[in-house]
Design a protein that fits this description.
Elements: E1 2-6, H1 17-27, E2 31-37, H2 43-60, E3 66-78, E4 84-92, H3 99-125, H4 132-137, H5 147-156, H6 163-171, E5 184-185, H7 186-195, E6 199-203, H8 216-223, E7 229-233, H9 239-252, E8 255-258, H10 278-287, E9 294-295
Parallel strand pairs: 1-2, 2-3, 3-5, 6-7, 7-8
Antiparallel strand pairs: 3-4, 3-9, 4-6
Helix pairs in contact: 1-2, 5-6, 8-9
Bound molecules: adenosine monophosphate, fe (iii) ion (2 copies) and zinc ion (ZN).
Length: about 300
Amino acid sequence: MIDLHTHSAVSDGTDTPTELVATAAAAGVTVLALTDHDTTAGWDEAAAALRGLGSAGSASGAPGLRLVRGAEFSTVSPDGHGGTVTAHLLGYLFDPADPDIVAEQERVRGSRRERVRAMGERMAAGGLPIDGDALLARLPADSPAGRPHIGQALVDAGVVGSVPQAFEELLRKDGPYYVEKYNTPIAAAIAMIAAAGGVAVFAHPFARRRGPCVDAAVIRDLAATGLHGVEVDHPDHDADDRAALRALAAEEGLLVTGSSDYHGTNKTTPIAAETTATPVLDALVRRATGAEVLAG
Ligand code: AMP
Ligand code: FE
Ligand code: FE
Ligand code: ZN
């Protein structure tokens, strides 16, 4: 079972990288990708957890778990009819010390924190018990803070019952408190990931309930300029969009991935709810030169 898109508490999941590796192993995942938003800060802890599991695994005869280290890049893309939309791009097995990636991820994380402050101010002005600065003070200084953190603060304050409910009622893009952050132009992000030896996959391109999405034509254009794959099987994609994406991927020679986008208790989807086929993983790994797949 191959799950190529998961988050730890280093970004907006709720499992520590160690817990995430344990969750994956317990669920029978054989290949886990850690793809926190705009950071590689969880890579070392996940690798250490994998090594710990390896010794336990061999003692018990349990099948091993392999770790694909990656990140989900916040980008902005042409929408295909003259405007732009935000889009998420999965980068796998790139060199985490690549100076362009280090600098760009720092820039996005800085903007993320500014935006939590700005949304917090709007919420406070609207009478909601949210203090962006206090929220940020509880996170590491370089955290890729996001709306789920505000959602948890709303849960803690008793305003809503869950983070998903906070999204539905208060954190939506078309809601009164939303503030945009800086996002990397998607073509630049694809080029950056490739230059660092990584592989780029367009994450949940048709996750329509989150907001406006790209047209299929945009994915075709990106395929011509270095995009390697597209995430087709994702909890936020309906059957029609999956079929359309699968056909498009076949025409353009894009890898088709599937993944849970697991966020611990910040979302309802369990790990490995959607999975990737083994030949796709093999093709992805063959193309990558920036980091190794780690075995437990
Ligand atoms: P941000 O990156 O701060 O704009 O927040 C977006 C993140 O919130 C996404 O990466 C998702 O993980 C999460 N998210 C988006 N929609 C929902 C939802 N309806 N319920 C829970 N989490 C969501
Ligand atoms: Fe997220
Ligand atoms: Fe995403
Ligand atoms: Zn994600």
